Fold:
Amino acid sequence: AQSVSQHNHHVILSEAASLELGCNYSYGGTVNLFWYVQYPGQHLQLLLKYFSGDPLVKGIKGFEAEFIKSKFSFNLRKPSVQWSDTAEYFCAVNARAGGGADGLTFGKGTHLIIQP
Amino acid sequence: DTAVSQTPKYLVTQMGNDKSIKCEQNLGHDTMYWYKQDSKKFLKIMFSYNNKELIINETVPNRFSPKSPDKAHLNLHINSLELGDSAVYFCASWVGDHQETQYFGPGTRLLVL
Structure:
């Protein structure tokens, strides 16, 4: 079974700072990778996804993530954060062999607070 | 039109009661899921249904029972509610294509008193 580890549970940044949230997964086979965002009181929104191809993927709201297969990592980045980026961020994987029928395995989330 | 919808949005009930949460998707997807998000925001899959067949059932108490009357609906019935069942429950659906992601519903906030 796969597992996901997000290193930072709470991150506090000032506006315009650069952001990098770490995500590592544990699984021996091929995976699909995702980052979701959950704004306060809201549902999950997909930020970006990686299935195959270019390991650097760009998502919505200026976010990007890089898949490094050798490190089993899929870190999320944004060059300049805004106050509106305050939210909970979740990294998720699903094993390609099982297909989506296995559902997503989520990390424990990173609570990001952006100070004006 | 909302792709994945859930009702109710909020549910407050007493311990010991039985309640249901409904989920509907209008995407024509083959697979639907229930996830639970606990008070620490941790999301974990509970069930997956494909063409009315239960595919996985993570270590969820048998007080929880998913019911799928048809491909577009996956309801979650909970018997004898406990305080620890308080959480946000998310429904999701998936088309069945490896190149596609899951679509999540807005969530149902359940509070057991």
Observations:
- Chain A has one domain: 3-115.
- The two ends of chain A are 41 Å apart (CA to CA).
